[in-house]
Amino acid sequence: MKKILSAVLSALCVLTAAAGFAACGKSGGNGGNGGNGAENGITPETAHCVTQPRRPGDGAVVCDHCGVTLYTGEAEYELSENHRYYIFKLDGVEYSAEGKVILPAFYKGRGEGYLPVLEARFSDRNVTSLELSPNVEYVAINSAVEDVSVSGNSAFYESADGVLFDKQMSSLYYYSSAKTAEKYEVPAGTKELEPRSFRENKYLKEAVLPGSVEFVGGFTNCSALETVVLPDGVREIYSDAFSGCTGIESVVIPASVETIGYGAFEGWKSSQTIYVAAEEKPAGWDEGWNNYSEAAVVWGYKG
Question: What pTM, to 2 d.p., does this model score?
């Protein structure tokens, strides 16, 4: 009888553990404007959670439910001004983690219940890959995180090949400076390359933009970049969009471009050429669109 009871208890333990892992794998929406996420199916019972402090001896921070290691190191959890959610921070100095980071969906401080983690800010160059929780609403990445993925059904973000987009895949937010590919094809349907999206990548030589792109930014200091073709239909080139891109021999600005921000081609050399379809500077272009550039400008280019 004791053996039977022992077997039953063992089986129950296995089922309970499996249920914990499965629960953390479920998702159904987002936290939404500082809410707790329950209305969208994400609750502390269905997502990764961390309680302060949760630091085993080896420095690994694990999920309260399933025991999965979320990151190894120490992060800051800053309570929002309205006290309804947390902001996750890794600054690479006082707060740092090594390798992969799985962003928890909920955090419990001392003497309180779980609150959602709706913002995350990364400046830690020790982080190599990042998995976003499904309820995070805002992410700022100022480091060399090579690969970004999104867990579950996020209402705010999507990823493809380690590149971060908005949910609709219409805006490209982040292409890592650590990616070593020499060519990248922006997915069809993408409309915007956000400022800083490709910033500081020293490996990319060719960026292929689909005809859907209307707003271009983010190639600041991509010194290896040699080829980029702006498709007809591009409406705006952001400030600093191609500053420091000294490897490009020439670029053609199509007639569709209505706006160019300040210093879009800053740092270009006299050996580089900017061909412009317009006969003269359009009214919407910043007066300093070509400031601090030595590149030749050819107006009225017909191709």
Answer: 0.85
